[in-house]
Amino acid sequence: MWIDNLQYANWSEKIFRQMREGRVDAVHVTIAYHENFRETVLNFEQWNRWFEQYSDLIMPAYVVADIDVARETNRTAILFGFQNPSPIEDDIGLVEIVHRLGARFMQLTYNNQSLLATGCYEAEDTGLTRMGKQVVREMNRVGLVVDMSHSADRSTIEAADYSERPIAITHANPFDWAPALRNKKDDVIQAVVQNGGMLGFSLYPHHLKDKSACTLESFCTMIARTAEKFGAQHLGIGSDLCQDQPDSIVEWMRMGRWTKETDYGEGSACAPGFPPMPTWFESNKDFGNLEKGLRTVGFNEEETAGIMGRNWYCFYESSFHAAPAEKRLLNSPPSELKKNCSA
Amino acid sequence: MWIDNLQYANWSEKIFRQMREGRVDAVHVTIAYHENFRETVLNFEQWNRWFEQYSDLIMPAYVVADIDVARETNRTAILFGFQNPSPIEDDIGLVEIVHRLGARFMQLTYNNQSLLATGCYEAEDTGLTRMGKQVVREMNRVGLVVDMSHSADRSTIEAADYSERPIAITHANPFDWAPALRNKKDDVIQAVVQNGGMLGFSLYPHHLKDKSACTLESFCTMIARTAEKFGAQHLGIGSDLCQDQPDSIVEWMRMGRWTKETDYGEGSACAPGFPPMPTWFESNKDFGNLEKGLRTVGFNEEETAGIMGRNWYCFYESSFHAAPAEKRLLNSPPSELKKNCSA
């Protein structure tokens, strides 16, 4: 059972075949960065066409049982997620709609301040906004996982604590291994895992020690250190593979529609594009290298199976269905909006 | 020359006739609270129909000269504004588009955190966001006035300082006269006026001392105190008149689409609706009462004329056109986004 919990490749038959060659059973694919609701629906439509066209290679997964079906039929299950809340625009009612359409993960922010929380590129972080608290509760209700991969530290800790259900950092690495703005400090990872959440390790060079030159051993040793600190059962892969994307795509990711100036994000004026991937992880075909690397640094068979996919599978199992009403009543934090008549 | 720089009435022939009876030469009307771009265009369309239907009573104003035409033809000039940046969604390119369509004021926030800045109902305020700084510069460029009436203190001060052109608080009163969350502390008013900005006094009962029971004398005495502190030339009227609106409208203003729970805003569970207006300002017909009240508390003819409309007229004159390119080059603050290759 191998699962990659974050990819944004330039999808093609070639890549879907590589998923099969690499024996990747499920991939969480990003279908929105800055797209509004209608634009996101167009992306669902595009995937529906691919599911029809490549039905021998891929199928949609809405519940964890769909991944079992995919395995039995030698296909890769595709799960949908957003790296920004832009698909719900300013409308809390769209949370249930996008879940119904198939979205299973939504970041509360990309790099900037959103209506819900603060992104990791803002100068300051006020945590969850008024709308943010309302939306997290609604995501908990319907079974849409809160993803804080691109959010600032305080916002991430507040989301982990405020959320009634476990949240995820789908694609990032520990800051103390590679001090990138996008990587996570120990207190942030701790807040996520102590609430039952997951951390998916990223293979995106800007998140790696020595960037594109990072070795498999260095990467897997980092995973071993993280397992010692936080427990291997909370760890998985979220490779952030952006295979075959032109540099215009990373410009769109960084700049969307919010600025007329160039924002280089994790890059810089002299390295504005996508960095080359490490030679040992260039496509889905290389998934097996990760398993070998994990065994080499001393993970046993069970721990390795967990990190390679089983942990995400178990997380999906408890995350994608609607929360039982009783639980909601019991666990709902007191409303921020209630006011008595003296107010 | 009488100008009301903020109304959101339930528009009708009756109200347009009352504008004429009250000799109101220009009204800045709100056409968006939570509307997205397309919904805002529908509101422009509705006004186009009213301009056609009631061409003897009202006309659109895009530049200050249109107000002169309105006066010469005994009509009321209508200016458009937004109380939220929702019409530009996440798209800085829409700033120039909405200005071209006729928008002349835009609040960077309503009550909540926006993509641009922090609203006065949030627990904390981080000031202008990354997108906020980009959008303020673009508003300066095209001639769309930054309005901070519903914004939090730090965001308002930062906007006043960061903006290359004077900004406005179109409808609020001093906090020390009526300590409402929506009213403004002296340091906030100071930041706006010292940059050449304007403060429009609100007649909305939740912003008044003694609310609906506030007297004309108390209101005008407050204006006199404010003129002593900040200078009469920075003051005008922004009545926030919501005449003939059903309570469902104030619910929409407060809750938009961001919450499934009731938010009472400035009201409360036992006073959820629109409060009754003071008896001396129930409609546009009562505009003359303000002039009498201002003279009674000792304002001279020139000061009174300024507060009743001339100050807004002069502000419009320098605010609605595109900024000269040279000025932009000279005054543009250094970009937040520039990064050298060491980054």
Q: What are the salient characteristics of this protein?
A:
six-stranded parallel beta sheet, TIM Barrel, globular, 343 residues, 12 helices, homodimer
Please explain how this structure is put together.
The structure is a homodimer of 343-residue chains. With 343 residues, the first copy, chain A, is of the alpha/beta class. The first copy, chain A, has one domain: Metal-dependent hydrolases (TIM Barrel). Helix content of chain A is 40%, strand content 11%. Chain A is built from 12 helices and 9 strands. In chain A, strands 1, 2, 3, 4, 5 and 6 form a 6-stranded parallel β-sheet that branches. In chain A, strands 7-8-9 form a 3-stranded parallel β-sheet. In chain A, β3, α3 and β4 form a beta-alpha-beta unit. In chain A, α8 crosses α10 and α10 packs across α11. The longest helix of chain A is centred in the last third of the chain and has 19 residues. Chain A is globular, with a radius of gyration of 19 Å. The termini of chain A are far apart. The mean pLDDT of chain A is 94. At the A-B interface, α5 of A face α5 of B. Chains A, B: GO terms for molecular function: dipeptidase activity. Chains A, B: It is an enzyme of class 3 (hydrolase). Chains A, B: Pfam families: Peptidase_M19. Chains A, B: It comes from Pseudovibrio brasiliensis. Chains A, B: This is Membrane dipeptidase.
